[in-house]
Design brief:
Layout (H helix, E strand, L loop, with lengths): L5 H19 L4 E6 L2 H6 L1 H14 L5 E6 L11 E5 L5 E3 L4 H13 L8 E4 L6
Parallel strand pairs: 1-2
Antiparallel strand pairs: 1-3, 3-4, 4-5
């Protein structure tokens, strides 16, 4: 294994900071990928990988990517929930890499709900 150089450590540090910000930071938008066993077997890892790639490609700094367990709709996986600050959350279902790209550009970045992929708008939690 080659020795690490200071610039290698800086790259690693920057990558960890970006990852921590995506998971824990305060952002304009939060995207939750539902990754229970059913979600993973339906392709949630591909959805998360696609989102991570899009965030990096577009140099987005104010979007939090996170995961959760099963949302209780196993037959509709893979699923994500998009929450724009000050707006009701939107649950998207039956996702593919192509669909999540459209959701990312139109809803996450553009603020427009992609109704053809949305199952529900609003929260099952009490206000």
């Amino acid at each position: 294994m080659p020795k690490l150089k200071p610039e290698d450590l800086e790259k690693i540090t920057e990558k960890v900071k970006r990852t921590m910000f995506l998971r824990e930071g305060v952002g304009r938008t939060k995207v939750t990928v539902h990754m229970g066993t059913c979600g993973i077997s339906a392709g949630a890892r591909k959805i998360m990988s696609t989102l991570l790639s899009l965030v990096e490609k577009e140099s987005v700094k104010d979007v939090i990517l996170t995961t959760s367990g099963c949302a209780g709709l196993c037959s509709r996986e893979p699923m994500v929930t998009v929450e724009l600050k000050g707006k009701a959350p939107v649950k998207y279902v039956d996702l593919t890499e192509e669909k999540i790209r459209k959701i990312f550009y139109e809803h996450v970045l553009g603020g427009k709900i992609v109704t053809e992929y949305a199952l529900a708008i609003g929260s099952e939690r009490e206000p």
